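Sanity check

After download, print the first record. It should look like this:
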Amino acid sequence: MKWNKEEIKLLKTLNNPDKIQAFLDSIDYNPNYECRSPRQVMRKRSAHCFEGALFAASALQFIGYKPLIIDMKAENDDDHVIAVFKKNGYWGAVAKSNFTTLRYREPVYRSLRELIMSYFDFYFNTDGVKSLRSYSRPFDLTFFESRNWTTTDEDLEYIGDKIESLHHYPVVTKKMIAGFYKASDTMMKAGMLGSKPEGLFKPK
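Expected structure tokens:
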């Protein structure tokens, strides 16, 4: 299946990563446990982080980038998925999140680890505990091109299963974790500004 005329019209307006991010910021956060295609994100005007990453990857692909996503694993918190792109040899990211601090990154990072670590201090649960633990290598979504992942009505949880199975690189040690301080009240307020309460992870 291909994009229809209305979808192409919208995608043509999203002609750089910043505009793709602005679109994701403008739509509602989806608190439901499901995984809809980029077509459905456009129709419903809502997305959670996984759906947002898939949409961003498809929009980046439309303007000539590879459709790459990275899975970020967390402890006692939601995992996070971002769409990554490379410009002039440097990595950047586009993302949907219920936290303001876990979204766009300018393409200024020399390595994927640098990019991922830019999220570290801002990745905390609702108790303020810093929770990022590891990240996957980039996954190229053209692997699922035959399943029409951009336009299908099928639930895309199988993509989640795939990136979950990839090797993940740790970003912290147990000794580091033991010494972590919680995010400040100011940082927590900034991070959850405008968040949708029903979409927030409830720490154990």
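If your output differs, re-run the checksum step. Summary of this record's structure: The radius of gyration is 16 Å.
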